[in-house]
Amino acid sequence: MDIESIRQIVEANPQGVRIVMIDGTKLDIPHRDFISLGPGTDSGLSARRVAARTTFTVYEVNGIPMRIVNAMLVKEVVPLHSGGKGKGRKRSA
After folding, report:
1. Would you list the DSSP string of 55-75?
2. Do residues 31 and 14 lie in contact, with contact meaning Cβ atoms separated by under 8 Å?
3. Which CATH number fits domain 3-79: 2.40.50.140, 1.20.120.420, 2.60.120.200, 2.30.30.100?
4. Fewest CB within a 10 Å sphere: which of 7, 25, 27, 53?
């Protein structure tokens, strides 16, 4: 996936998301404050420069970086809690 797609899903699901990596690893993000995706296109950077970024950071509850993640290795991002209003939900076939 790309950073902007991940950002849209995270912002559309404030109740939290689960990031599933291609190797099956699952990262639960309980709130937007636990993930750092860097500046988006609204920061004045061109869409091309933002799209070139491929990494983001997921934090633990205590604020210490848990993992630096390559967006290209993300299989899917789904709402952490069912029944939410998330617009970015990716469904399995």
Report:
1. EEEEE-TTSSEEEEEEGGGEE
2. yes
3. 2.30.30.100
4. 25
DSSP 22: T
24's enclosing H/E stretch is none
Are 83 and 34 in contact by the 8 Å Cβ rule? The answer is no
Residue 76 region by backbone torsions, left for phi larger than 0, else alpha for psi between -120 and 50, else beta:
beta
Task: Note the pTM of the prediction, 2 decimals.
Answer: 0.72
Question: In which order are the strands placed within the sheet that holds 35-36?
Answer: 35-36, 55-59, 65-70
- At 36-76, the pLDDT tens digits run 887 765 656 666 665 567 889 898 866 667 888 999 999 99
